[in-house]
């Protein structure tokens, strides 16, 4: 039982050091101090914290998610159109090359007209 508590405390200490070294503790402390110093407390402490940490609010996040979904659909549509256009172009090139080869065979097989004068 004692070993479990020691391991748990070691994990907590390790996590605390991680938060301090990454600057998370300082950032959170500054935001909480700014909230504390507000004379007129905001209606939503969470939104205040998100704003100060440059996070979008929940409605903004949902709007961004919807925009992302719309753009993903548009991208997929454009990619499909692009691939189809490339395929058509390749088919046209192949058809043109075959047509040119066919024309060349026809002209090569024709004998030059003799002048019997």
Automatic annotation (TrEMBL):
GO terms for cellular component: nucleus. This is c-Myc-binding protein homolog. Its main location: nucleus. Residues 96-117 are annotated as: Disordered. The lineage of its organism: Eukaryota, Viridiplantae, Streptophyta, Embryophyta, Tracheophyta. InterPro entries: AMY1 (IPR026060). GO terms for molecular function: transcription coactivator activity. The keyword Nucleus applies. Residues 105-117 have a biased composition (Basic and acidic residues). It comes from Pisum sativum. Belongs to the AMY1 family. It is found in: Nucleus. It comes from the Eukaryota. The keyword Nucleus applies. Keywords: Nucleus.
């Amino acid at each position: 039982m004692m070993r479990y508590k020691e391991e748990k405390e070691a994990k907590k200490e390790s996590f605390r050091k991680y938060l301090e070294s990454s600057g998370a503790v300082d950032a959170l402390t500054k935001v909480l101090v700014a909230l504390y110093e507000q004379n007129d407390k905001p209606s939503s402490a969470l939104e205040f914290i998100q704003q100060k940490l440059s996070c979008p609010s929940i409605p903004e996040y949902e709007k961004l998610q919807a925009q992302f979904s719309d753009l993903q659909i548009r991208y997929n549509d454009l990619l499909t159109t692009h691939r189809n256009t490339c395929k058509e172009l390749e088919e046209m090139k192949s058809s043109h090359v075959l047509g040119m080869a066919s024309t060349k065979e026809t002209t090569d097989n024709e004998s030059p007209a003799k002048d019997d004068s």
